[in-house]
Amino acid sequence: MAPEAVLETRPARSGRAEAPALRLSQRAGEMQASPLRKLAAIAEERKKKGIRVYHLNIGQPDLPTPPVVFETIRSLNLNTLAYAPSNGMPESLSAWQRYLEAKGIKVDQKEIVVTSGGSEAIIFAMCAICDAGDELIVFEPFYTNYNGFATIANVTLRPVPLDIANGFHLPPADVIEQYITPRTRGFLFCNPSNPTGTVYSRGEVAGLVSLAQKHNLFLLSDEVYREFAYEGVSHSVMSFPEVADRAILLDSTSKRFNVCGARIGALVSHNPEVVQSAFKFGMARLSVATVEQLALVPLLNSPEQYTRPIAEEFRRRRDLVYGGLGQIEGVTFYKPEGAFYIVIGLPVADAEHFARWLIEEYEYEKETVLLAPAQGFYATPGKGLNEVRLAFMLNRESLQRSLLIIKEALKAYSRNKRSDS
Amino acid sequence: MAPEAVLETRPARSGRAEAPALRLSQRAGEMQASPLRKLAAIAEERKKKGIRVYHLNIGQPDLPTPPVVFETIRSLNLNTLAYAPSNGMPESLSAWQRYLEAKGIKVDQKEIVVTSGGSEAIIFAMCAICDAGDELIVFEPFYTNYNGFATIANVTLRPVPLDIANGFHLPPADVIEQYITPRTRGFLFCNPSNPTGTVYSRGEVAGLVSLAQKHNLFLLSDEVYREFAYEGVSHSVMSFPEVADRAILLDSTSKRFNVCGARIGALVSHNPEVVQSAFKFGMARLSVATVEQLALVPLLNSPEQYTRPIAEEFRRRRDLVYGGLGQIEGVTFYKPEGAFYIVIGLPVADAEHFARWLIEEYEYEKETVLLAPAQGFYATPGKGLNEVRLAFMLNRESLQRSLLIIKEALKAYSRNKRSDS
User: Fold this and answer.
1) For residue range A398-419, what is the model confidence (pLDDT) as tens digits?
2) What is the ipTM of this complex?
3) How far apart are the first and last CA of chain B?
4) Mutate which of B18, B58, B81, B291 to test chain A, going by most A C-beta atoms within 10 A?
5) Which superfamily, per CATH, for B27-64+305-416?
6) CATH of domain B67-302
């Protein structure tokens, strides 16, 4: 870097009469605020007016955290909160290994990097395989925060549209193949899926595996809802030995153990270069919170006893919502096979307008519902306009009540519209 | 995005006889492993052979964490580890505000985003103001992890060389100005400085402030060593009202409270767009660990009682090291005004070779020292070749012993070299 060479380019700027306006980066401008929060402020205003609001919009589990977490925290005998090793504390790595083994995924501790939530695992994976402008294929609707991670990592997401008519399952390989470009570096998919609740069949994952081999791509598999598969099982990308070199498992304890606030996730791969790269990105941020790494060890060491009751409760809620949606006229839906979400089509032209009206104006016996317009889960403009995501974060009584309110609201909305026109 | 248009570009890849090798990103390749860890593995081997190793290489404080942190953790009454708000829990935001006010920095709670360590604050600031390929000016030698953050955020660091002869203080404005290009978006500086221990005078910070105004740049001020200023005081970028729009304070609790493993930092700015942008990047990763946000509230609420004894101990160590270095022939050094580091010049051609020899072969009464070669703190090739960084993380007796070993080692190394030639 020669300062002389730099000087040549300076007069252009210095020569301007006025300094240019102080501006943020383009990516700061592109960064969308979480669409899930758009209507939350309105909901708070409504509550102040004595209206009860059922929150079907958020993914924060309502069930308690297993008490063993707090017992562990209270019993920790630490003198110093020291930096943990950048790839994770030995206790946490060992517990992750045991957890994965219990799920049929055999990995060495050296193949794991403990991360600050699944979020950081996704950012590290993006940085490990993509340079600025490289592309990852996602399946739309997709977890909206993938947009944020892509913005941070300067990665372009190319969405393959899915269809509510087949429960948002994957299209055939030749359709997916059309979205592969010379800049494509991999697939990023969530299985079971947030926001659709879809669980990909073994054949569907095998299809992605074949495409990854044929086109030399990585497979970034976000499996944080692994335990929430109510029809069949969820197939880990790690169960395909033929892609051991290109499979990257992105995982998190948040949902399956109800420990969202602990921020403990992991990146796992049999490809030593990928793991080494994640380790190096990890070195830059030094370490993940010590207390939480230790606090979750008991959960990871014997997961079933903690995840089974949680998954069973969500299955009951899924059944209730699935049954209840059948009672609402004009709604398009399917049976979500996993996770604790469903994207449904409403008999309205603009679901965001409906959701806003619902929370701003509507009430049914002093109650209303907060929905997440699905538009925010799509990258392609104009997609998902009549869809909303429901999250099953309320007890069954409240869910039942919420469905009744939606049913009545749709009738009222339709009447309003007719009288408007 | 039209799949048709994409198809046109595909044959070039599909037409190849063999799939290209599965490769990681260029930035994954550029990402350096922490230079501080290079020699650590050798040190472990040496210890197994019965040699005592004094670690002068690392920045992990040896002092205990204030017990109130663990008392707070034990007394937390939580049922659910829920996601915290993405900008920070109200308790933490309020405590940060009080802490900053105690330091003479008046900000609104809305001007603070709690981050996962100072590391995340730096990444968010980089993303908020830089697009891929944009540049930040740093002062060399600089905190080596800035490289990692820049790689993640796709930002180019342009180092302005500093001089050990004036204790690594800043050069005049016209010299710094030569490094500004049309891609320059701001200055990133650490004050008091890791790795040099330099505390910039009010005039030096004012010089950067003027340059930032003149060239319309942001000021990213890493002030995590604020309390460790032994000569005069450290001047916060927030104490210059004329750059309220362009000053971004990057902060962390790690060093000043000895809570490195808690991973609690903050990004602070009077520029609402910067804060909003950091908030949005924060939304993508959802939240910072709940337990630690709450656990550090007592420290931030009344900082002096915790930071003063720590800073006093480091000042005593600084005095001891400064005095001791005067006893070692041929060493170039200066009086570090802050932090708990010093970069010194050794009378050797290659400090990394010396450091490796010291840890691999040398012993003085069954003891040796692990040093951090300063080369890793420079970006310009060939810079800092004869320098090492010392961290004052040992008690005074051990520091004294370490200096004696370095003194004897330099004599032996010099004798070896003569007998070699």
Assistant:
1) 999 999 999 999 999 999 876 6
2) 0.86
3) 67
4) B81
5) Aspartate Aminotransferase, domain 1 (3.90.1150.10)
6) 3.40.640.10
